């Protein structure tokens, strides 16, 4: 039996901040029968989340106190409150929620841990009922409309308890993580911040630096964009306000890494300019292959090779569904999928990533059903 089946999801949860992450958590919890109460400083965000089936509004009931410092009237505290607000807003939101007695214990989801936790201590928050958290799953869109119940499936979710953290907070946060289908990982806050500087925050800036080159490029040039450039720049589309807050709250380790990246780039540029690419540039490319090869595969396991089966599909409704259905009928699990649109053409190239031993069978099955499967790795 998996741990997801053995742990009971929290019965009653408050989500404060109903944007992408808060609403995604709320949807995942609703799917497991948890009662979810929603709050956001923006009433429209609460309405959209509630309309999407993420829960019911926490505030706005008759006779509600106007001052956040006043406790909620006739309110049974939730088992857990999740602060899903930007990193800089976590300490004040925690203090306010604790003063109002919103929940018995609290966690947050901010992408940076050390600075908000220190500020919470400084503000006088009760750190025994709080544990810092960070789900390592997300996307480059914001707001409740971008939320997905499966956003955290199979992803690590970091918890940063301190010496002050009580057992109830860690227990409730762990139950939340398992209810969202994620895997809890306990880390020290400073170690967490250094880790995410490397695997999330610096990549974001590097992605933005590349995407910024496209801002003034002619449309005709960008129409040639393939999957590689899309992969490198996807995260650059993230909300600049949120990302500025994240970067400023974890400034030093990110700045150190950016300087390392910049040194590599300057050396590569000099090598290319001086016709000596075999040296520094070849070395950078080789280190890139080595580094990329160390990224673990799906579900955090060891890197595993899948084979891509390329298929040309017509750009019309239902075509992808037929493709997936054909794979399902053949009993082949699709591990991943990538879609490349051909500009100005009514066809697209879909790559179905499957286990190597299934690739030939899938190619044969799809060809038999009339799809064009270019000869490739699968043959
Ligand atoms: N975007 C991503 O992929 C990930 C984000 N995170 C973290 O999750 C948190 C939320 O990010 P998103 O959901 O992406 O942002 P978002 O912009 O979609 O949602 C944030 C919500 O918080 C609300 N808010 C801001 N200050 C508030 C306050 N003081 N009280 C109540 N509500 C307040 C905003 O109105 C907004 O609805 C951030 O701390 C971020 O670092 C963590 C993992 C992934
Ligand atoms: O879009 C992606 O691939 C991400 O990695 C999203 C993400 C953004 C911020 C985080 O703190 C964690 C995850």
From TrEMBL:
<feature type="domain" description="Prephenate/arogenate dehydrogenase">
    <location>
        <begin position="11"/>
        <end position="302"/>
    </location>
</feature>
<keyword id="KW-0827">Tyrosine biosynthesis</keyword>
<keyword id="KW-0057">Aromatic amino acid biosynthesis</keyword>
<keyword id="KW-0520">NAD</keyword>
<dbReference type="Pfam" id="PF02153">
    <property type="entry name" value="PDH_N"/>
</dbReference>
<dbReference type="InterPro" id="IPR002912">
    <property type="entry name" value="ACT_dom"/>
</dbReference>
<dbReference type="InterPro" id="IPR046825">
    <property type="entry name" value="PDH_C"/>
</dbReference>
<comment type="pathway">
    <text>Amino-acid biosynthesis; L-tyrosine biosynthesis; (4-hydroxyphenyl)pyruvate from prephenate (NAD(+) route): step 1/1.</text>
</comment>
<keyword id="KW-0028">Amino-acid biosynthesis</keyword>
<feature type="domain" description="ACT">
    <location>
        <begin position="308"/>
        <end position="379"/>
    </location>
</feature>
<comment type="similarity">
    <text>Belongs to the prephenate/arogenate dehydrogenase family.</text>
</comment>
<dbReference type="InterPro" id="IPR046826">
    <property type="entry name" value="PDH_N"/>
</dbReference>
<keyword id="KW-0560">Oxidoreductase</keyword>
<protein>
    <recommendedName>
        <fullName>Prephenate dehydrogenase</fullName>
        <ecNumber>1.3.1.12</ecNumber>
    </recommendedName>
</protein>
<dbReference type="InterPro" id="IPR003099">
    <property type="entry name" value="Prephen_DH"/>
</dbReference>
<dbReference type="Pfam" id="PF20463">
    <property type="entry name" value="PDH_C"/>
</dbReference>
<dbReference type="InterPro" id="IPR050812">
    <property type="entry name" value="Preph/Arog_dehydrog"/>
</dbReference>
<dbReference type="InterPro" id="IPR008927">
    <property type="entry name" value="6-PGluconate_DH-like_C_sf"/>
</dbReference>
<dbReference type="InterPro" id="IPR036291">
    <property type="entry name" value="NAD(P)-bd_dom_sf"/>
</dbReference>
């Amino acid at each position: 039996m998996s741990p997801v089946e053995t742990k009971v999801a929290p019965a009653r949860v408050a989500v404060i901040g109903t944007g992408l992450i808060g609403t995604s958590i709320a949807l995942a919890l609703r799917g497991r029968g948890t009662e979810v109460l929603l709050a956001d400083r923006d009433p429209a965000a609460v309405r959209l989340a509630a309309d999407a089936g993420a829960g019911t509004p926490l505030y706005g009931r008759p006779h509600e106190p106007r001052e956040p410092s006043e406790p909620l009237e006739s309110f049974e505290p939730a088992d857990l409150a999740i602060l899903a607000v930007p990193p800089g807003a976590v300490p004040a939101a925690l203090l306010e929620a604790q003063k109002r007695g919103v929940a018995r214990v609290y966690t947050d989801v901010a992408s940076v841990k050390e600075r908000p936790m220190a500020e919470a201590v400084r503000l006088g928050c009760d750190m025994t009922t709080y544990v810092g958290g960070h789900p390592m799953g997300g996307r480059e869109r914001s707001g409740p409309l971008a939320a997905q119940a499966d956003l955290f499936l199979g992803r690590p979710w970091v918890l940063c308890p301190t010496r002050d953290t009580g057992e109830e907070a860690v227990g409730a946060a762990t139950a939340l993580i398992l209810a969202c289908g994620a895997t809890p990982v306990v880390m020290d806050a400073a170690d967490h911040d250094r880790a995410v500087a490397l695997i999330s925050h610096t990549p974001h800036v590097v992605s933005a630096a590349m995407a910024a080159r496209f801002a003034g490029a002619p449309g005709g040039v960008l129409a040639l964009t393939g999957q590689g450039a899309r992969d490198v720049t996807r995260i650059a589309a993230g909300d600049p306000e949120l990302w500025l807050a994240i970067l400023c709250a974890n400034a030093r380790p990110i700045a150190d890494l950016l300087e390392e990246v910049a040194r590599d780039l300057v050396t590569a540029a000099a090598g290319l300019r001086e016709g000596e690419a075999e040296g520094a540039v070849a070395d950078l490319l080789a280190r890139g292959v080595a580094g990329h090869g160390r990224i673990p595969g799906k579900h955090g396991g060891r890197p595993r090779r899948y084979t891509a089966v390329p298929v040309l599909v017509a750009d019309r409704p239902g075509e992808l569904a037929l493709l997936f259905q054909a794979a399902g009928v053949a009993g082949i699990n699709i591990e991943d999928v990538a879609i490349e649109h051909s500009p100005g053409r009514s066809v697209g190239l879909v790559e179905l990533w499957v286990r190597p031993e299934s690739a030939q069978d899938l190619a044969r099955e799809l060809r038999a059903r009339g799809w064009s499967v270019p000869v490739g790795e699968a043959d």
